[in-house]
Structures are given as structure tokens and as C-alpha cells.
Amino acid sequence: MTDKPTLPGAMPNAYVPGQGHLPPEDQALVSRRQQALGPAYRLFYETPVHLVRGEGVWLYDKDGQAYLDTYNNVASVGHCHPRVVEAMTRQAGLFASHTRYLHEGILSYAERLLSYFPQELAHVMFTCTGSEANDLAFRIARAHTGGTGFIVTENAYHGVTHAIAGMSPSLGVGVPLGEHIRTIPAPDPLRMTGDLAQSFAAEVQKAIDDLTRHGIKPAALIVDTVFSSDGVYADPPGFLAAAVQAIHRAGGLFIADEVQPGFGRTGETMWGFQRHGITPDMVSLGKPMGNGYPIAGLVMRPEVIAAFGAKARYFNTFGGNAVAAATANAVLDVIEDEGLMQNAATVGALFRDGLADLATRHSALGPIRAAGLFLGAEIVRNGDPLAADATRTARIVNHLREGGVLISATGPRANVLKIRPPLVFSADNVAFFLDRLEAALQAG
Q1: pLDDT tens track for 379-414
Q2: 148-187: per-residue pLDDT in tens?
Q3: Domain spans of the chain?
Q4: CA torsion sign, 202 to 205 to 210 to 211?
């Protein structure tokens, strides 16, 4: 017996008001949240965590309790990294404005950022969030191709604007898919038969054929290049190439969503798409770009923006402002100077091996998938890789929270431990995590 897929959007690790064991002062905060913020916000964990500060890979609650952060990829180079904080505050004290004035900071950062990409990707436009970056990609793809059809995976998350929420099935049945959106299965080697590259490309082709049959011209295929919300599918390297060829044959574009896997997290390469030996038409960036400061962007081939740029002005009051540029530049400094991409590869391999070792002793720990410091570990019943156990996954997530480790779950069956710690994670941090995870597995 297997868990039925959860309704996407039924957040797998959400606090239910009235449950848990919150002290009175935190329960009062929950009540204030409900009163001030309304019903759409969610908190993590059966008993939410009241955090007050962070440093490196650790977060601290109001009582000084430390929690190992293995989930928050926003602070990609560590919480409150002093070099990033200094760059941010220094620029904020000098000048902060938008991109309609000449300023060297944004140009220096843009040129440096583009140097990490294939030379075909020669333009970058700045936004505040990954959602905005994907929304801009949506507009540009329609202008360039004349098409309106978009293809996404079945449990994808790409953002929260009106158009992009409609391309994010993981938000749930309460957020309807947009017009002309088609979904395809994630590239799950356990559930796709035959060669994974050809099987996934065949699903893309089916979606293209269905769009065409309904008189809809394909505009783009967009994927998160590690399929993080689908359950983390990174291997084998290269499997995405055939799917990209399929959308190109149909006259559509390929958009690589690098908001989560980008900036060295996969260890082997700076960007997830590079593991597949492909060059996208557009690449969206976000969360880790400013280590918590809101900066995001869209990198693209010049020919893709030509039609859009000839007809439309683009302006974003805060996207690419001088403080954002200085902050994001400091993030690149830290990634380079501290060797964080190599650290992601080295520590990520250690992490993966440690999880595999645990799996030999605990049948509940099923398939493990990883690329650098982006890992997914399935929780299953009786060692059956197809028997998802969402209920036990929730217990493990909350047991880890009580043991001082912050993590969450993902995937259409809500049974995949989603592990994406700051890139400064160490071997000692891995050992701490594995010790706490084993205790959670033993607890049942």
C-alpha cells in the first residue's frame, strides 16, 4: 500500500493552529499573526520556531536554543555573513536608487555575473524576486515566439505572481493552472520506464502535441534544473538535453529556473543546467543571489529579448538598485574566496554517503538523490521505494525540529526530506545532522 499523492498545496509541514505545545507568549504571536496577516500565511512545524537571530549555519530562538539550518537556501553563504552585511550597509550609507540613472555598481555586477554563463547568454535584467524573474521570462517568451503554451512538471513551483502561480502546480488546487499550461511527470527514474532522457523528452513531446492539437503554439518549457519541488531529480547528468531539443523543434524556448539550484549549490557547476551540457534561452535567478537581500534576475540570449525590448519598456524600482548590486557582488566574492562551490561538492558527497549508510540500517530511509548540497531522501514503508510514507515523514521532520535541526518535506507524496543547507556547511554539521536523523528514524 502506498500513500496517495497529496493534494498539491496541502503544505506537508504546516502548523495547525491550536496544536503543538507553544508557550503562552508564542501562542499570543500566532494570534497576532492571524489577526494582522490574515489566513493565507503558513508556519512550519507542529510547534513553530520563534527565531531571533542567525549566524553561519545556525539559527537561534528567543531562549538561545540553536538550530542547525539544513533547509534555508536563501542565506546561501551563511546567515549574516559579515562580508555581505558590510557591503550592504556600506552602500546603503552612500547611495540607493534604481537603474534609470547611470551607476557603475550595477554594470560591474552584471558583467561579472554574465562571465559565469555561456557567452551566448549575454544580457541580464534585474528584479527583486525569482517570481518576478520568471514572470518576466513568461512575457518575453510570449513576445519572442508568438506562442502562449507553457509546459511545467506536475509538482513544480516557479513563483507567486498571477501568471507564474498558474504555472506552479505545487501551490495546490486552490490556485488553478493558467490558461494554456500543460503539466508533465517529473523525471523520476523509479516511475519512468526505459531511458530517462528519452522518457522525459517523450512527455514533453506529448505536451507539445496536445497544445498543438488545441491550436495553441508552444512558447516555452520551464523547469527547475534539480526538480526540487518534484522531489529532487538531478541525475543522470545530461538527461535534460533531449527535452530541450523537443521544445526547440516546436519553436519554443527553454527556461532554466536556477532560483534554487544556482550559485554553486550543485557542486560540479555554478548552474544546474550546466550539468546537462545545455545552454538555455533564458535563466531565472533568485533567492541565494543576495544572501537574503531581495535581488533576482533573468539572464538571456540577446535575440530572445529583441522583440520584447523593441516594443516595451522594462523598469523595476528596486530591481538592480545600488545596494542590491553591492550585496550580490559580495556574495560572489564569498563564493569564490571561500571555495564554496568546491565545498558543496566535497561536503555534499560526504552527506550523500552518510545518508546511504543510514539507509542500510533503517528501511524507512529510501532512495537518496543529490547534487552537491542539494539532497532529497525519501521516507518509505518497509524498504519499498514506491511505498511513500508521508505520515512518518512529518513525524521525522518534527522530531528533527525538536532535536535542533530545521528541515522540511517536498514532493507530490510529501515524503521527501528536502535538504539544502547554506554552502558553508561542514563535515561536523553533516555528522550532527546524521546523528539527529538516526534518532528520528529510531523513534519511528
Answers
A1: 999 999 999 999 999 999 999 999 999 999 999 999
A2: 999 999 999 999 999 999 999 999 999 999 999 999 999 9
A3: 24-34+50-77+339-443, 82-337
A4: positive
CB 269 within 8 A of CB 308: no
For domain 24-34+50-77+339-443, the CATH class is alpha beta
SS3 label, residue 17:
coil
Cell numbers 517529473: residue: 186
Q: Which of 128, 92, 55 is nearest to 318 (CA)?
A: 128
154 contacts: CB under 8 Å, gap ≥ 6? 8, 169, 183, 184, 185, 186, 230, 412
pLDDT value at 265 more than 70: yes
pTM: 0.94
C-alpha cell at 206: 506529448
Closest CA to 74 of 263, 255, 324: 263
The grid coordinates listed for 199 are: 522518457
When the pLDDT of each residue in the chain is averaged and rounded to a whole number, the result is 94
Q: For residue 358, list its beta bridge partners.
A: none
Segment 333-340 long-range contacts (CB within 8 Å, at least 24 positions apart): 333/83, 334/77, 334/81, 334/83, 334/84, 334/291, 335/77, 335/263, 335/264, 335/423, 338/77, 338/424, 340/77, 340/264, 340/423, 340/424
The yes-or-no verdict on residue 4 having pLDDT over 80 is no
Pairing of strands 408-410, 416-419: antiparallel
DSSP string, 56-119: BTEEEETT--EEEESS--SSTT-BT-HHHHHHHHHHHTT----TTS--HHHHHHHHHHHTTS-T
Q: How far apart are CA 68 and CA 308, in angstroms?
A: 45
Which CATH number applies to 82-337?
3.40.640.10
Cell 518534527 sits on residue: 398
Q: Is there a contact between 255 and 221 (Cβ–Cβ < 8 Å)?
A: yes
Average pLDDT on 356-363 reads 97
Q: Would you state the pLDDT for residue 10? A: 53
Contacts of 105 (CB under 8 A, 6+ apart): 91, 322, 325, 326, 329
